[in-house]
Write a structure and sequence with these properties.
Distance between the termini: 117 Å
Order of helices and strands: HEEEEEEHHEEEEEHE
Oligomer: single chain
Structural class: alpha+beta
CATH superfamily of one domain: Lipid/polyisoprenoid-binding, YceI-like
Strand content: 35-45%
CATH class of one domain: Mainly Beta
Shape: elongated
CATH architecture of one domain: Beta Barrel
Radius of gyration: 37 Å
Helix content: 10-25%
Number of strands: 12
């Protein structure tokens, strides 16, 4: 029997090699990957996003015209009052009002009360001064109530546009509304509060930046005296210890309705 030659024995091996090479030569070229934005893996510095620029603000300081008004309902009628020494400032972003912030401080020993019944108002003033530690009408100088504006919601409009001089040489004010969120501190107790406000911006010779702003309440800020541990009980009206406790519990639950009228002048 004839033995196959070397070429014959190697034929299957060569066939496999040829087949593999043929397959490689005939396979389609790999397509380039499809790029998604950004097209460049490492864009030049000029194309990189710049960090958020600081928002420009204008500072307005409150002046002596600023006042905080109060209203308290009592059994003998409503008592009205005001705090007349009010300080603070606002950093207002005219191009993005929602980014504005500020603080208002009121000196508690500037509290004055009045009402239809002067005796009733005087009684409640004495109670308030005692509860706040303002003995002898304000011996504890420096006691403050503060409101820190930490955010503004429902702002309209968001931008205060520059003014345009009218034919009469005056400029129309710009108005805005918002709800101020912030921390309210009174008598050592801090709570979160929301206050609906409106602002009126007036211009001077500079038609780009308002010279002044007036900020007023659109609705009262309700302050619970009980929350701040302020007890306006009148011990002189209680005959028995049981009556004292009942009066204290009832009168500590009073709510005071607060509104503001703040006058700010550009620094």
């Amino acid at each position: 029997m004839n033995r196959p030659g070397i070429l014959q024995r190697s034929a299957p091996f060569f066939a496999v090699i040829v087949g593999v090479l043929g397959a490689l030569g005939c396979s389609p070229k790999k397509s380039k990957p499809v790029h998604s934005e950004p097209w460049l893996a490492h864009p030049p510095a000029s194309a990189q996003a710049a960090p958020d620029a600081a928002i420009a603000t204008t500072r307005y300081r409150l002046d002596e015209r600023s006042v905080i008004r109060l209203e308290l309902a009592t059994k003998r009628g409503k008592v009205h009052g005001k705090l007349t020494r009010v300080h603070g400032e606002f950093e207002i972003a005219l191009g993005a009002l929602s980014q504005s912030r500020g603080q208002v401080q009121a000196e508690l020993d500037s509290l004055a009360l009045d009402g239809d019944d002067d005796a009733n108002a005087a009684d409640w003033l004495a109670r308030a001064q005692s509860a706040l530690g303002l003995a002898d009408g304000g011996a504890r100088v420096g006691a403050l109530a503060t409101f820190d504006v930490t955010a503004l919601d429902d702002v309209s409009p968001e931008v205060i546009e520059p003014a345009h001089a009218s034919d009469a040489g005056t400029t129309a004010p710009r108005r805005a509304r918002a709800i101020a969120d912030g921390d309210f501190l009174l008598h050592g107790f801090r709570v979160q509060k929301r206050a609906p406000l409106e602002a009126e911006f007036s211009f001077g010779s500079d038609l780009e930046v308002p010279a002044a702003v007036v900020i007023r309440s659109r609705g009262p800020l309700v302050v619970s005296l009980e929350t701040h541990e302020i007890h306006l009980h009148g011990a002189e009206n209680a005959r028995k210890s049981g009556e004292k406790r009942r009066n204290r519990a009832a009168e500590s639950g009073h709510d005071v309705r607060v509104s503001v009228e703040l006058y700010g002048t550009k620094d």
